[in-house]
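Thread: Newbie trying to understand structure tokens

Hi all, I'm a second-year student working on a class project, and my supervisor (Dr. K.) asked me to get a predicted structure for one chain before our next meeting. I've only ever worked with sequences, so writing a 3D structure as a token string is new to me. If someone could post the tokens and maybe explain what I'm looking at, I'd be very grateful. Here's the chain:
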Amino acid sequence: MTTELTVTGMSCGHCEESVEDALAEVEGVTDASADNETDTVTVDGDADVDALVAAVEDAGYDASA
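---
Reply by user tm_fold:
Sure, no problem. This is what the structure looks like when written as tokens:
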């Protein structure tokens, strides 16, 4: 399953990496790819959407499904 989140607050490659790293820690995530130019992150796996949003927010960014 693929989930796309809208993430605001990313402004550079380091921000993308921080979001991807945070999502990689969520149980069920097999891959995460963030794009600061489109304010999105695409997440593969069967993780709960609320857990994904919480992980991004814990990393310091705003997220919504």
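A couple of things are worth pointing out once you decode it. Strands lie at 2-8, 29-35, 40-45, 62-64. The chain has a mean pLDDT of 98. Feel free to ask follow-ups in this thread.
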